[in-house]
UniProtKB/TrEMBL annotation, chains A, B:
<dbReference type="GO" id="GO:0035999">
    <property type="term" value="P:tetrahydrofolate interconversion"/>
</dbReference>
<feature type="binding site">
    <location>
        <begin position="74"/>
        <end position="81"/>
    </location>
    <ligand>
        <name>ATP</name>
    </ligand>
</feature>
<keyword id="KW-0554">One-carbon metabolism</keyword>
<dbReference type="GO" id="GO:0005524">
    <property type="term" value="F:ATP binding"/>
</dbReference>
<dbReference type="InterPro" id="IPR020628">
    <property type="entry name" value="Formate_THF_ligase_CS"/>
</dbReference>
<dbReference type="InterPro" id="IPR000559">
    <property type="entry name" value="Formate_THF_ligase"/>
</dbReference>
<keyword id="KW-0547">Nucleotide-binding</keyword>
<keyword id="KW-0067">ATP-binding</keyword>
<comment type="pathway">
    <text>One-carbon metabolism; tetrahydrofolate interconversion.</text>
</comment>
<comment type="similarity">
    <text>Belongs to the formate--tetrahydrofolate ligase family.</text>
</comment>
<protein>
    <recommendedName>
        <fullName>Formate--tetrahydrofolate ligase</fullName>
        <ecNumber>6.3.4.3</ecNumber>
    </recommendedName>
</protein>
<dbReference type="GO" id="GO:0004329">
    <property type="term" value="F:formate-tetrahydrofolate ligase activity"/>
</dbReference>
<dbReference type="InterPro" id="IPR027417">
    <property type="entry name" value="P-loop_NTPase"/>
</dbReference>
<dbReference type="Pfam" id="PF01268">
    <property type="entry name" value="FTHFS"/>
</dbReference>
<keyword id="KW-0436">Ligase</keyword>
Length: 586, 586
């Protein structure tokens, strides 16, 4: 597939629509994936049989396994997905067989402020319209499974309040006594819809009840999404769904989806969603796109199954984790790799002149507003001051025993002196290399240097180690993350949080890993603290359980799980022509 | 494809899973559909390019066009889908090339009381699991498009209350002044979830508003679903979406999805949903499955596009309409055929001994409870008394100038004398023929007689005529349906209904057809009035507008648009094994 590059670079959708796509079955067979394991969904998308990655010990380990993470980003994002795609294309340019493994983006933000999420410029996943809208319906399946469970809980409360013990016995059931104030599951929708953040349900007459205050999250925040991302096969998916704690009874005992007899139907709804999706890069490499758990309240990584498959069919598997190395990468290591059994070989840490200047004290960066001059003109002082953030992130990567390559995602306004400053600081802080990458403007050609640097860094034997053993108490694990990853002086638990931790230990959930829920804009819990904050303590307001996903998530600060639409939302630009061709999706 | 029949007949899912499926691309090419118009979604489902049916004048008219309807059903249903599939299989047995065109069922009821909806016994659409769960995601796409529009309206109310006229002008927008009490769109979810019938949204802080009472419908009740079903091509879909009246401003003027600049994005979300899905019958015929609008508040028919495609590639297209001839069939003729330009050739009216006995005064028939003896033993008196309902339905079909064949959907407890009684009454009432059909137990072999009778009835030239011209006033059209179809003495409009009718006429909506919303259990508005009620008047409580779908729908009686889950819901039986094979879906 050849794509003719233009300068200035056209819009993402113009580039994507000008590409000549290869048939996805050809991409799959090029990787050596058996035809019987490939289900085409139209000519350019396929689902791949999850059985190919079902058991880690059986899957032939072939690939070097690369994680792409970033420094603490600005609200504009620093181009992690674009770099992931660019790096895979760069590997292509140096003659290596590489695939990408990415998250499927939530559809809600596509219509809000964010636009597309399939990479950008000449480093994109195509068809980008499908990538951004529905794909093969996996997020919808997650929503349906989640909402079935939520409906099951409310319906049970209704029927138990209405009918006798004897009536339930006659049906072969016994009462669960769910506490209407103890429901632990809300509802979800894949939409930015602020008015659903806090709702009252069950109004009307008795048969429309129970009357309760409740909430909606965006679908990717569902525990079901985290479960789908971490499941190793169908049986594991089924039993994880069953373990979800979705309510508490009137005595405070946890009630699971299994107790409500709904986990089997939830698994049936997810039978196709368990199969990873295969798409392609603009330069014809395979790209697995599968699952998209939230990166703050969940672990923010694409699926275990996709990666397990991918490592069997490529020399390099490049996978992105959510937000910065303190967030998605730490969870990638301590949660996802622990589930998958896969061992990472190298990390690519994406940095931009823009974000480093912001960490050095630059003015606020706001989506939808023009960038202040500090960001578009050379400013070595701001940049130098911001380098603390880069150094801290490199320290986090080193803590896990993995070599790091810094990818300087270039912008047209950057200067050579600025790049040199970053490179020097990165090498001083222990990076294997630091390379300017021009994949947005030049595709794989612009990332060939980066690919060579990553090849070199990943060549050795991995000395990967987890941050903590599962045997630590929940409190110890939280303190270790706060101290060794975030650089906090300690952790302050509210009384409620401490009580929950004690209860979870006594209920047998103490051996689960930790999935921290905090802001991505700072290494601390406070988005205003830039660079590498020192002399602060991490406040844990609340602790929640995701027993099916298999982690405990402490909440540090305000975490929104339902975005809103802005005053001039992105949907206003989107349209179709008479042939169904989409425009205005950026 | 050969399927070995067993006696007693196994469960639906056992039969479906024992079938050897043909590759769907083979089914498509067998029909002569060009390969370039076929997108496989896995090996056994395909989407067919809507362009094949895009323009009625261009589509080669080839097939006889058969509608399957029924007498007024019991809450158990009388086997209309099963008969539709059986008839197609029956045509196969007599050497004819037939396809089915069916609605996609809502997924919600699958988990409630209803179970599967892909036919039954040896007359089913397969794969039945996919038919019942997600299929290719069209209903999810409808939900997303609908909910995007709902979020857009609430977000606009929020932002207009917060920002100045000048701020909107700077963004190139002007205020619409939507009335928070004039929002005409709720939200939807494809789930039986009673607590969502009446909700309060927008609680929390100001940024989580506006605070309003609102509601959720099940997704198939969305106007977007009706629009998708009636659209003739992408441009028509796009402009219908734009015409949806989703709110009123503070002066009472209608505001459309176009005014909110969201119709283009909605169309983008539906670009694949516009393509009909192709599946297969147990005996290897093609079955188009596309769109599933509610049969009471909407028109209850599968898509115009699927039928337009189907008539170009088969000798017989058999399509089902919702509920009885007073409901789905009348709307099939006056709404769907008016949109499609297709002219029906014959009607199959499904009747059962059970339903006719219920109309004759038999005891109540309740889902989940054993049938009273009156229904399982010969009872010619009850049956004879119920024949008025059959006669009335045959009168309705005759009113449209179309020949009717009565299909007696047989049950093991029926007797020959009962069948004879039905046949005599049917012929007396003007049916072309009346045939006992055993497709449930015997597949196509059991429906070969029915197919022959339908072939004969459809052989002549169609003398089809609409019930009313669009030039009639809305009130005249409603009165004509009530009088000539339902047998009412007249119509009683509430003051509110009369006022709405007047307003709609003055706003230019007076030339739309009527889509009556009433119970399916009686020819009247009162489910308790069995047989052919006489001496009653139809009360119209309220009148609503579906400007995008292109009809006005008067509400007669209580119509629920959000089912609930029963005390022992069907989801409790459903599970998957380690390979992802589904069980317990009936």
């Amino acid at each position: 597939m050849a794509i003719e590059r233009k300068n200035p670079v056209p819009s993402d959708i113009e580039i994507a629509q000008s590409a000549e796509l290869e048939r996805i079955s050809d991409i799959a067979s090029g990787l050596g994936i058996p035809a019987g394991a490939v289900e085409e969904y139209g000519p350019y998308k396929a689902k791949i049989d999850w059985r190919l990655g079902g058991a880690s010990e059986k899957a032939p380990r072939k690939a070097k396994y690369i994680n792409v993470t970033a420094i603490s980003p600005t609200p504009l994002g620093e181009g992690k997905t674009t770099t992931t795609v660019g790096l895979v294309q760069g590997f292509g340019k140096i003659g290596k067989n590489a695939v990408a493994a990415l998250r499927q983006p939530s559809m809600g933000p596509t219509f809000g402020i964010k636009g597309g999420a399939a990479g950008g410029g000449y480093s994109q996943i195509i068809p980008m319209e499908d990538f951004n809208l529905h794909l093969t319906g996996d997020i919808h399946a997650v929503s349906a499974a989640h909402n079935l469970c939520a409906a099951a809980v409310d319906a049970r409360i209704y029927h138990e309040s209405r009918w006798s013990d004897g009536y339930f016995e006659k049906m072969g059931l016994s009462k669960l006594n769910p506490d209407p104030h103890g429901v632990a599951i809300g509802r979800v929708v894949d939409m930015n819809d602020r008015v659903l953040r806090h709702v009252v349900t069950g109004m009307g007459s008795r048969a429309d009840g129970p009357l309760r205050q409740s909430h909606f999250d965006i679908s990717v925040a569902s525990e079901v999404m985290a479960i789908l991302a971490l499941a190793s096969d169908m049986a594991d998916l089924r039993s994880r769904l069953g373990r979800m704690v979705v309510a508490y009874d009137t005595k405070g005992n946890p009630l699971t989806a299994e107790d409500f007899k709904v986990a089997g139907a939830m698994a049936a709804l997810l039978k196709d969603a368990l199969k990873p999706n295969l798409l392609q890069t603009l330069e014809g490499q395979g790209a697995f796109v599968h699952t998209g758990p939230f990166a703050n309240i969940a672990h923010g990584n694409s699926s275990v199954i996709a990666d397990r498959i991918a490592v069997g069919y490529a020399d390099y598997v490049v996978t992105e984790s959510g937000f910065g190395s303190d967030m998605g990468m730490e969870k990638f290591f301590d949660i996802k790799c622990r589930s998958s059994g896969l061992v990472p070989d190298a990390v690519v840490l994406v940095a931009t002149v823009r974000a480093l200047k912001a960490h050095g004290g630059g003015p606020a960066v706001t989506p939808g507003k023009p960038l202040p001059a500090a960001y578009t003109e050379e400013n070595l002082e701001l940049l130098g001051n911001g380098m603390a953030n880069l150094t801290a992130h490199l320290g986090i990567v080193r803590r896990f025993g993995i070599p790091a390559v810094v990818a300087i995602n270039s912008f047209p306004t950057d200067t050579q002196a600025e790049w040199d400053l970053i490179r020097d600081a990165a090498l001083k802080a222990g990076a294997s290399d630091a390379v300017v990458s021009r994949h947005w403007a030049l595709g794989g050609e612009g990332a060939a240097d980066l690919a060579e640097a990553v090849e070199k860094a990943a060549a050795g034997k991995s000395e990967f180690k987890f941050l903590y053993p599962l045997e630590n108490t929940l409190t110890e694990k939280i303190e270790k993350i706060a101290g060794e990853v975030y650089g906090a002086d300690g952790v302050d638990f509210t009384a409620a949080a401490a009580e929950t931790l004690e209860r979870l230990e006594s209920q047998g959930y103490g051996k689960l890993p930790i999935c921290m829920a905090k802001t991505q804009y700072s290494l601390s819990h406070d988005p205003a603290l830039k660079g590498a904050p020192r002399g602060w303590r991490l406040p844990v307001r609340e602790v929640r359980l995701a027993a099916g996903a298999g982690f405990v998530y402490p909440i540090c600060g305000d975490i929104s799980t339902m975005p809103g639409l802005p005053s001039k939302p992105a949907f206003m630009n989107i349209d179709v022509d008479a042939e169904g061709r989409i425009s205005g999706l950026f």
